[in-house]
Design goal:
alpha/beta; seven-stranded mixed beta sheet; five-stranded parallel beta sheet; 35% helix; globular; binds flavin-adenine dinucleotide
């Protein structure tokens, strides 16, 4: 029988988590995927980049003090091993997802999915065979792909997106120009910086990580510059040109033309929703820009068809895709989702790490909310002194009227894990006193959070 209660198209963190939740809630479920289970996140995104960053840090730490020549030799030897390890980890995790499908009795249909009519999905396998299925509900979770704006020269050989860079290289680049100082750009800058590559970042807005609190981007720029990274902000790229064996990235900044050169160029200016061929030509969903338009229940304009994750979401993050997948399935089953989808932690795996949740001071002001900010600069924090990662700080934003925590911005070791307790605080409307109630172990980075909260409490008392 080719009927399912739910068919999910796309097995990224949105689709596979939605399918597993659906199976748990008793829905007869299938997932359609034409590449590897785990999607961008496990195979071309979150996991490979963190694996490479781990390897490059180990390499950098091990070589501290080694002669430059030795360093270059070892990197040449280690680079293929780093990419091999990254691919092995992705493959294991992807196989793990397939294993989860099997034990949950979710059918994994390999091929390209296309919604041909409401309730109908056609799956075209690699062998050219096409099978039709019907479903009560269809979730589109087809994710996103790197954006390539129409800038002349972006199609030159040597200009890559994260997809191509993650395929690996035999030799480290001598130099790389990264177009885009967002999360992907600064993570690759950290990786190539560790390898001793000459890194240049060209960012169109006035700072790195322009979507996050201003101080985070400014502090990161200072630390990266100390590590030898060149940064141009307010720099609009006009074209990329071949320049002998190198590539020149030409940009305007403050009305003047400039150019920087590198052996390779990474185009990291964002990602665009991907749903090519997912709907029959006469069955197109409504859109917002390139994204599939959904309502608060993830319903598209086509009856019985929902969309989650990067293909429809304003925020393109793996945990957002997963949370939306779970919420969508729970709503389909008549349940009230537990997760507050408005509270979104976001992390950057540079050094030191950056993590942020809720409102910044500037955003609170724009929203007309009166807030105070408690802050701890972590120069006197014992663990930070031991690790010596450069200037670290934590900021916690609290409402003046209710003393509730509404946001936090951390830039320090392990902040990507520590942000969780602040996300819990924001989602549950906890006050500064509630977060100060439990003692924090010593010596930890989290002690600085206690100091930032004490500072906030004192400012709220005034
Ligand atoms: P995807 O993961 O893109 O999965 C979509 C799947 O659908 C794909 O497997 C695709 O093959 C499949 N598909 C598409 N069309 C069809 C079709 N017609 N039929 C069948 N299958 C189809 N996010 C974080 O939260 N943390 C990070 O640290 C992080 N790092 C990142 C680093 C990089 C370099 C990149 C590129 C992204 C990173 N992201 C990170 C973002 C994260 O990867 C995405 O937000 C997440 O993968 C989106 O999940 P998704 O399920 O919506 O889509």
């Amino acid at each position: 029988m080719n009927h399912y209660q739910l068919i999910v198209i796309g097995a990224g963190p949105g689709g596979y988590v939605a399918a597993l939740r659906a199976a748990k809630l008793g829905l007869h479920t299938a997932v359609v995927e034409d590449r590897e289970a785990g999607g961008t996140c496990l195979n071309r995104g979150c996991v490979p980049t963190k694996s490479l960053l781990h390897s490059s840090q180990v390499l950098r730490d091990a070589r501290e003090g080694a002669a430059i020549g030795v360093l270059a030799e070892n990197i040449r030897a280690d680079l293929p091993a780093m990419f091999a390890r990254q691919k092995e980890i992705s493959a294991k995790l992807s196989a793990g997802v397939e294993g989860l499908f099997k034990s949950a009795k979710v059918d994994f249909l390999q091929g390209r999915g296309c919604v041909t009519a409401p309730g109908c999905v056609q799956v075209s396998g690699k062998n050219g065979e096409t099978v039709s299925y019907t479903a009560d509900h269809i979730i589109i979770a087809t994710g996103s792909v790197p954006a390539r704006p129409p800038i002349p020269g972006l199609d030159l050989p040597g200009v890559m997106t994260s997809d191509e860079l993650l395929q690996g290289a035999e030799e480290p680049y001598r130099s790389i120009v990264i177009i885009g100082g967002g999360v992907i750009g600064v993570e690759f800058a950290t990786f190539y910086g560790d390898l001793g590559c000459q890194v240049t970042i060209v960012e169109g807005l006035d700072r790195l990580l322009p979507n996050l609190d201003r101080e985070l981007g400014q502090n990161l720029a200072q630390l990266l510059k100390k590590q030898g990274v060149t940064i141009h902000t307010g720099a609009m790229v006009q074209r990329v040109e071949q320049n002998g064996e190198e590539l020149s990235v030409c940009f305007t900044a403050k009305g003047e033309e400039h150019s920087v050169t590198g052996q390779a160029v990474l185009c990291a200016i964002g990602r665009q929703p991907y749903w090519e061929g997912v709907f029959a030509p006469d069955l197109q969903p409504e859109t917002v820009g390139r994204a599939i338009k959904v309502d608060e229940n993830f319903c598209t304009s086509i009856p019985g068809v929902y969309a989650i994750g990067d293909v429809s979401s304003r925020i393109q993050l793996a945990h957002v895709a997963s949370a939306q997948g779970v919420a969508c399935v729970e709503k389909i089953c008549g349940k009230v989702p537990a997760v507050d989808l408005r509270v979104v932690p976001s992390c950057v795996y540079c050094r030191p790490e950056i993590a942020s949740v809720g409102l910044t001071e500037a955003e609170a002001k724009d929203a007309g909310i009166s807030v105070k900010v408690g802050k701890c600069v972590m120069g006197a924090n014992a663990r930070t002194m031991i690790d010596d990662p450069g200037r670290c700080f934590m900021k916690v934003v609290g409402r003046v009227d209710t003393r509730q925590i509404v946001g936090a911005q951390l830039m320090c070791q392990h902040s990507t894990d520590m942000i969780d307790q602040l996300s819990q605080a924001v989602a549950n409307g906890m006050t500064v006193e509630q977060l100060l109630r439990a003692m924090r172990p010593h010596p930890t980075f989290a002690e600085a959070l206690g100091d930032a909260l004490e500072d906030l409490a004192a400012k709220l008392d005034k």
